[in-house]
Amino acid sequence: MATGSSRSIPGAIWRRLCYFRRTKRLVHHLRARPGEKLTLDDAASIAGMERTAFSRFFHHEIGLTFSEFQRVYRVHLAVERLLTSNISVKELASAVGFRCTSTFARNFRREVGMSPAHFRTRLRRGSLAHFASGSGTRRDPRGRGIKPIYVS
Q: What is the DSSP code string of 37-74?
């Protein structure tokens, strides 16, 4: 399985990240080290920018703060791994960069709409075929309707 593939985060965000020269370096870093703890300072350094300038640039161009982006990216990596492996939820949380399983489960539920364990159970029963096909959806917490969770 290719970790950190372009399917790991919503397509529009991925395309915007790849568009900017500075954030391309960050994309390469994220793909190479998907579970690594990455601070805002680290990300700014990789992009070759000051912390404040990077934070403003990232939020303006991507539409998410860096911490929001990291949360979404990690949950989407988790969805991809749940679709392709049988590792435990605790191991999965650690593999995608969450130190605490309960934090991982809370963030997973926020993005996907169910716990990782429930997601895996439904996946095994075959009732989540839309996720496996790349067309899963989630409710946008800001009330803007349904957003794609997974883009082919």
A: ---HHHHHHHHTS-HHHHHHHHHHHHSS-HHHHHHHHH
